[in-house]
């Protein structure tokens, strides 16, 4: 445990960990509410929290590897985020938060 607490985590690692927790929490909430843990129901459980997840700060590689397979985002949101990853974060004016913590 001591070595884990001394480990230095990058922002991206923390971000990825938090996103995994959000996703797992939503799946548990689906089960608690007797809903199939489908992308539609997970999105329903996450509601507005989804837009506080800082997808624009991800690399395109991580976005494709970790977010796209969940089928959580709409096609429009995926296109918006892919475009956002091509420009400086300060210029992004979309639905998702893009400021680093």
What does this structure look like?
The chain has one domain. The protein has 101 residues and is mainly α. The two termini are 25 Å apart. The chain has helices at 2-6, 11-32, 39-46, 60-67, 75-84. The chain contains five helices and no strands. Residues 1-6 have low confidence and may be disordered.
> What is the number of E strands?
0
Mean pLDDT, all residues: 80
The helix/strand series, from N terminus to C terminus, equals HHHHH
Helix content: 40-55%
Please indicate the count of domains.
1
Structural class: mainly alpha
**Can you count the helices?**
5
- Radius of gyration, in Å, reads 15 Å
Low-confidence stretches: 1-6
Estimate the global geometry from the Cα principal axes.
Answer: globular
Percent strand equals under 5%
How far apart the termini lie comes to 25 Å
Largest sheet: none
Layout of strands and helices, then pairs:
Elements: H1 2-6, H2 11-32, H3 39-46, H4 60-67, H5 75-84
Which keywords apply here?
101 residues, mainly alpha, globular
Overview in brief:
With 101 residues, the chain is mainly α. The protein is built from five helices and no strands.
